């Protein structure tokens, strides 16, 4: 049940992206789903503790998932496993959320609407730029040092 819930939580994190082509595998979201699954395990076991009489197994489960929580939280907070491609693949869905909310929010103040429109425009441009970089890096590897940022569309 916990594994299924964790997998579902990972998938649910993508429901607020603006477009399906903004969904990429994200290590950061994976680590987040896993630390949430760890906490869920602790909570569920705590509520059902009287159903499981083996104290040693319960202590081992609590200890194991507490360690897992610390590991996955550390991975999220440190971003130690996130390189160029993983970073962009995590940022595209993140930017996509900004696109969704900026486009669909019911904004009445013209200043706020203008800000939302500016955010919408820049986030879409940055998503396109990251997609180009992902394709280029996957095909050709890293650009040489000193290569200027390509912001063309």
From TrEMBL:
<protein>
    <submittedName>
        <fullName>DUF305 domain-containing protein</fullName>
    </submittedName>
</protein>
<keyword id="KW-0812">Transmembrane</keyword>
<dbReference type="InterPro" id="IPR012347">
    <property type="entry name" value="Ferritin-like"/>
</dbReference>
<feature type="domain" description="DUF305">
    <location>
        <begin position="84"/>
        <end position="132"/>
    </location>
</feature>
<keyword id="KW-0472">Membrane</keyword>
<dbReference type="Pfam" id="PF03713">
    <property type="entry name" value="DUF305"/>
</dbReference>
<feature type="transmembrane region" description="Helical">
    <location>
        <begin position="57"/>
        <end position="76"/>
    </location>
</feature>
<feature type="transmembrane region" description="Helical">
    <location>
        <begin position="7"/>
        <end position="25"/>
    </location>
</feature>
<dbReference type="InterPro" id="IPR005183">
    <property type="entry name" value="DUF305_CopM-like"/>
</dbReference>
<keyword id="KW-1133">Transmembrane helix</keyword>
<feature type="transmembrane region" description="Helical">
    <location>
        <begin position="31"/>
        <end position="50"/>
    </location>
</feature>
